[in-house]
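Researcher: Last one for today. Full complex below.
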Amino acid sequence: MFKKINEFRKTKVFKHFISQPLAVGALIVITLLFLGAVFAPLIAPQNPYEMEKLSLSESLLPPVWMEGGQYPYILGTDVQGRGVFSTILYGSRTSFIVGFSVVTISGLLGGGVGLFAGFFGGIFDSIVMRTADTVLSFSKTLIAMLLLGIFRNSSIALVILAIVISDWVQYARTIRGEVLSVKEEEYVLASQAIGGTNMRTIFKHVLPNSISPLLVVGAVDFGIAVMLEATLSFLGVGVPVTQPSLGMMISQGRNYLYAGKWWLIVFPGLTLMAIVFSLNLISDWLRDEIDPKVKNI
Amino acid sequence: MSAYIGRRILQGILVLFLVSFIAFIIFQYLGDPVMTLAGRYATQAQRAEVREALGLNEPFYVQYFNFLKNALQGNFGMSYVTRVPVMELILERLPASIELAFVAESFAVILGISFGVFVSANPKNIISKILMTGSLFGVSLPTFLVGILLIYLFSIVLGIMPSSGRGETITIFNFWRSGLLTIDGWRHIIMPAFTLGMFQMALLFRITRGSMLEVLGAEYVRTAWAKGLKGKRVLFKHALRNALIPVVTMIGLQFGQLIGFAIVTESIFQWPGAGNLLLNSLYESDFPVVATYVIIVALIVVMLNVIVDISYAFLNPKIRYK
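Model: Here's the assembly. Have a good evening.
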């Protein structure tokens, strides 16, 4: 085990990684946030969604370091007496669930469709690409908002679905472009020449050689999905009110902003930003690592 | 090239048909068209009359055809809530949205491209490094958060900016209520426009920078330097002109995203635009307004895409000579 770790420490990837303080910092931040979300019930001083444990006499308390702040409400409380710190931990669970689900489903769906479209070409390819162009020219936010707003029964699963419906196309486009160049490589032709079936060629040769850019797309997309869920919940068409969500916290806190209760917005906002910002930094680093030629967009 | 343009226009029309079909389903099946025309408080007899007049017993395709015919004449029925023709409602709100989008986009394009050129020309400069980090914030901050924090900082803490509405407006040409002709209007538009344009600006900045770096390494730019041309001339006349092609395409293609963000921005700043109208209509299940909004947005996006494709064909010789 230790030998393996030591070997890894000598590899190029590790050396590059450690020489990028920003990427290392981002990875640490996102890991901490992720652990906080996973172990929320253990870390959080209270369960903000257990109604009977909330007390209105403790509502709208400022953070502990300010006058009137009370332990254990480190970051203050909202109007219902929910601790902001605890709610953030529970809320970021929703963010991570949506992010992981969207990236996994879109990646598998889009990646699969793009892989076959690129390899076989023809009419299937044209239909997929035209659909992708069309979906891309409309806003993801708008499509998700319309779907959720029209059908009105909100749940995390529906939010995920509403995002995936327009999100898979970028995976499809990315892998298709890669496949188009990979399938002209000699090893692919060789595989076909010795009688390998299409399926064998696709999964054994084309897929492993064209999948790496999807990692970059996935990292950026994770952040976008998290941001989109927050936006939808902020607008009141996202996850149900009974579900903790960073976007909803901000939306509810907004009413108390004029009264100077800034902690209701600033802390969930910072958490949201930290998630998206670290994911963007990691994807930047991944991009440089995978293909230094790719434009820095 | 005319075949290429023809194909693009045909595709655009196909997309519009698809969207109109979706809008038709929202309008006819999710909403209640009888209520659209007769209003929420109509009597049974009035409803039966309307049902007869609408031909709701006609086959599906006849109904769709009638919907299209009405849509082409700009007739989308009445709002459930306000009982005003939907088209009128949206047209009244559109100028506010267009002005906001225009100011936001101008701000994004001018600053985004300038920053991109500056950073590509002075990569080691400290300002460049600040701008690069700033752009990462720009693409990481959710629109709604930026808006709220701006309101908190400038309207509540400092108290120097208005937090909502359009301010004083002046009506021009009898139908266009403009906020861009008064100082008060400008004071109101600055924060929403910044909120809406920030993401675009950061994106355009990063694309311009990438594109410029690529072009600056090209042979013809080196030739221009070798000829002894001045820095500014090389930068703007030789490099920027070629670097702008992907940027211009991006501006066109990003417009759909702008519409999405505009809804969020309008909601935060209580901007009386079409996006805010859509959001309220969704809350109130006012389906005629939603369906009409979808069609209008699709029309704008498809037209812009066709224009971008055509101008791209003119700019790019690879397509021009196909």
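Chain B touches chain A through 48 residues (CB under 8 Å). The longest helix of chain B spans residues 86-121.
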